[in-house]
Design a protein that fits this description.
- With about 150 residues, this protein is mainly α.
- The protein has helices spanning about 5-10, 15-20, 30-65, 70-95, 100-135.
- Helix 1 runs parallel beside helix 4 and helix 4 (about 70-95) runs antiparallel to helix 5.
């Protein structure tokens, strides 16, 4: 697999990670351990799911003719690009109470949450990329030493 293909598939991480962790929430004895992170992951999916779907399709279309170096560079900045999308998504989902203070607070919360969740998934994707390169499953165009 090429890096560009890997980055395109990694757009599914915000769906795959909560889906992979969800069954652990039903295992007796494990529930108390996984409940807080699982709730955060599911909350992120609930509030950011629709805006992220639009964002992911746009990134996918943008990346089709790009070299992996361009895609990787964008991935590193993507949470900052996504944060206004997340903020607007929150405003669209809750179109009541449009006072200036409310709009500011919701926009700020949406932007900060978008950045935090985004960099969590960027870190997961980068860890997966490095593991796949080390195991020979991914043809890297960026040497590991230069990628740090």
């Amino acid at each position: 697999m090429t890096e560009a293909t890997f980055y395109r598939w990694s757009l599914l991480l915000p769906v795959a990670v909560p889906a992979a962790v969800l069954p652990a929430g039903f295992i007796p004895g494990v529930q108390d351990i996984v409940r807080p992170p699982l709730q955060l992951l599911l909350m992120g999916s609930y509030y950011g799911g629709a805006p992220y779907a639009v964002f992911a399709v746009a990134i996918l279309l943008w990346s089709l003719k790009r070299p992996s170096a361009d895609i990787r560079r964008f991935v590193l900045y993507s949470p900052f690009v996504f944060s206004p999308v997340a903020a607007v998504g929150l405003l669209v989902q809750y179109p009541y109470g449009w006072s200036a203070q409310w709009v500011f607070e919701v926009t700020l919360i949406g932007a900060c949450a978008g950045i935090a969740y985004g960099y969590f998934y960027v870190a997961v994707a980068e860890l997966l990329r490095r593991a796949l390169v080390r195991r020979g499953r991914l043809r890297s165009e960026v040497p590991l030493a230069a990628a740090t």
